[in-house]
């Protein structure tokens, strides 16, 4: 599957088949866990992080799903991680890569890095080291200093498998990237 970014929409109005499937899966998860829902939290990201730290992965997925469907890139990236690793949800690389695509297009460094790793491994997307390099390079450029060196190490590990022409292509793609695009 190739990443397709679509602006957040009501699940009933999603037209792209893969995005529709994501919306249906996320809506079903929301309905399934809705009965277990606690009162709304002011900051769903911190609530989800707390649930994740406590090993309550199902709660983390339940808390992340509504803001991810509304287009919150932090929630999309975190929910993508949950789907990629099967934490609180069945493992689903295609759903994870779709969520990472949305977060990456919005400029979220974690989403960009994780999408880069998905391209490197060929999980949920075709294996493509040039695109892996592009997204890891963008992640390093957008990351806070605490994450930057880690993302650079990941990018350099991918670069070690590439020709100089491929690296130049990845750099050109990163330089030409505009938020909102893949």
Jot down its keywords.
182 residues; mainly alpha; 9 helices; 67% helix
Structural class: mainly alpha
- Estimate the mean pLDDT confidence: 83
Shape: elongated
Helix content: 55-70%
Biggest sheet features = none
- Overall number of strands: 0
- Strand-residue proportion: under 5%
Query: Which regions contain 5 or more consecutive residues with pLDDT less than 50?
Result: 4-20, 22-42
- Note the total helix count: 9
Spell out the helices and strands N to C. Answer: HHHHHHHHH
State Rg.
16 Å
Distance between the termini: 14 Å
Describe this structure in words.
This protein is mainly α. It is about 65% helix and about 0% strand. It contains nine helices and no strands. Helix 3 crosses helix 4 (about 75-85). It is elongated.
Show the helix and strand layout:
Elements (H helix, E strand, L loop, with lengths): L16 H18 L9 H10 L3 H13 L3 H13 L7 H13 L3 H13 L7 H14 L2 H15 L4 H13 L6
Helix pairs in contact: 1-3, 2-3, 3-4, 4-5, 5-6, 6-7, 6-8, 7-8, 7-9
Concise synopsis of the structure shown:
By secondary structure, the chain is mainly alpha-helical. It is 67% helix and 0% strand. Mean pLDDT is 83; it is low at 4-20 and 22-42.
């Amino acid at each position: 599957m190739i990443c397709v970014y679509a602006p957040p929409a009501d699940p009933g109005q999603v037209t792209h088949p893969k995005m529709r499937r994501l919306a249906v899966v996320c809506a079903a998860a929301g309905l399934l866990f809705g009965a277990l829902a606690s009162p709304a939290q002011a900051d769903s990201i911190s609530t989800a992080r707390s649930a994740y730290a406590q090993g309550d992965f199902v709660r983390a997925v339940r808390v992340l799903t509504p803001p991810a469907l509304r287009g919150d890139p932090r929630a999309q990236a975190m929910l993508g991680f949950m789907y990629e690793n099967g934490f609180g949800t069945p493992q689903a690389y295609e759903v994870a890569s779709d969520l990472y695509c949305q977060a990456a297009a919005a400029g979220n460094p974690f989403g960009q890095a994780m999408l880069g790793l998905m391209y490197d491994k060929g999980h949920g997307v075709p294996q493509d080291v040039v695109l892996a390099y592009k997204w890891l390079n963008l992640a390093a450029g957008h990351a806070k200093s605490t994450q930057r060196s880690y993302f650079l190490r990941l990018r350099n590990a991918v670069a070690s498998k590439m020709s100089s022409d491929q690296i130049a292509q990845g750099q050109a793609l990163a330089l030409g990237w505009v938020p909102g695009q893949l």
